[in-house]
Amino acid sequence: MRNGGVGVGQLITFEGPDGAGKTSVLNGLMPRLNAHLSQPALLTREPGGTPIAEQIRELILDPANTAMDARTEALLYAASRRQHLVEVIEPALAAGRVVICDRFVDSSIAYQGAGRGIGEDAVRAINLFATAGRQPDLTLYLDVPSAVGLARIKAHQGERQYDRLDQEKEAFHLRVRQAYLDLAAASPTRIHTIDATQPLPQVIAECLSVLQQHLVSDWQS
């Protein structure tokens, strides 16, 4: 469903705990998705997506910033999201584009609200202010057990950025995943859960199938 007529495009978000493989899935998915759309989808990410938001990303994820307070972190994510929304997402939606965003508000609810323990309702409230109520039209949640995700991260340490979230213990990641599962259970029409423990080609194929059903009016054979 579109957001009350605001904008004419579609905002589709990808979510998942660390190690879910979102980057690999999106890299494999985007060429296949764009082959079926008359106008290429815009791929962007959070935190980041604009020069200002990318600067905030560096601040948030810098492993040296161990003194960062949990509420400061949540506010910085919301600030980055606001800038990203105003500069990139809303203009693209107004132009009728499909926007694929790697993480959005659900990430803040899961990571800061549940993972950091500062309260999901509080995080939801500051993001409601930041987004002026903008919600994804569709969310694909790539699910992996925390132990599997952490094992993947460890196995690929030399191939990815090591950030502040990677320093967290398993209990933190367990809380994050449970929050995601709760969000998916509460919004089954918006959030589609994909088993990301499957082989990568199968995960990509399932994501493409969900997108085809959602974008039926824009889909070209």
Automatic annotation (TrEMBL):
Q: Which residues form the Thymidylate kinase-like domain?
A: 14-203
Known catalytic reactions: dTMP + ATP = dTDP + ADP
Q: Which PROSITE patterns match?
A: THYMIDYLATE_KINASE
EC numbers on record: 2.7.4.9
Example of a GO MF term? dTMP kinase activity
Q: Where does ATP bind?
A: 16-23
A single Pfam family it belongs to is Thymidylate_kin
Which UniProt keywords are listed? ATP-binding, Kinase, Nucleotide biosynthesis, Nucleotide-binding, Transferase
Q: Which domain of life is it from?
A: Bacteria
Alphabetical list of SUPFAM superfamilies matching this protein: P-loop containing nucleoside triphosphate hydrolases (SSF52540)
What job does the chain carry out? Phosphorylation of dTMP to form dTDP in both de novo and salvage pathways of dTTP synthesis.
Q: Which family does it belong to?
A: Belongs to the thymidylate kinase family.
Protein name (Swiss-Prot/TrEMBL): Thymidylate kinase
Give the organism the record lists: Lacticaseibacillus mingshuiensis
- What would be the name of the gene that encodes this protein? tmk
